[in-house]
Amino acid sequence: MAEAEAKMKQFNGGGGGAGLDAERGRFPYCVVWTPIPVLTWLFPIIGHMGICTSTGVIRDFAGPYFVSEDNMAFGKPVKYWKLDPSKVYSTGPNAWDTAVHDASEEYKHRMHNLCCDNCHSHVALALNLMRYDNSTSWNMVKLCFFSLLYGKYVSIGGFVKTWLPFVLFLGVIVTVVLTLHLR
Predict the structure, then answer these.
(1) What is d(CA 110, CA 93) in angstroms, rounded to the nearest whole number?
(2) Which helix (H) or strand (E) holds 74?
(3) Residue 36 carries which DSSP code?
(4) Which contiguous run of DSSP H or E holds residue 22?
(5) C-beta of residue 20 within 8 angstroms of C-beta of residue 81
(6) pTM of the predicted structure, to 2 decimals
(7) Which of 12, 83, 22 is closest to 54 using CA atoms?
């Protein structure tokens, strides 16, 4: 049992997620990610994203004119990217939560568009409003790349949920191609 826990800590990057509680779905100061069925199976780096408040409450742009709270559109997060609240350059009391709230209120009045104005855009607006890392140039592409680079899986099951369908799909394609090519 201890060996499995040690492997899990190693898998998660040392277990340095203070305040995180995956079982309760609490990820303070994090960007969270979950796979989108079929889309993530074909492109495993594409998924659904949300941003959490200082207490870990998840806010995600789940559809047209709707920002959900603690109920991500495609299930519980399988990945999280822990951000540093000391890198918030916005002024005012509780700047992190204010930016997450303001971004959520803005997106309650927006139409969802899979390619241009989506959950990633909602998270980018929150980070831009709080001037995270002294930047106002957060966007979908930057978030996708950073989440891929710095994100940690909640569990080995989350990793499997993300990558197994893609590997199986790829295996079927390779099998069909080899079968047709070797005839």
Answers:
(1) 27
(2) none
(3) P
(4) none
(5) no
(6) 0.84
(7) 83
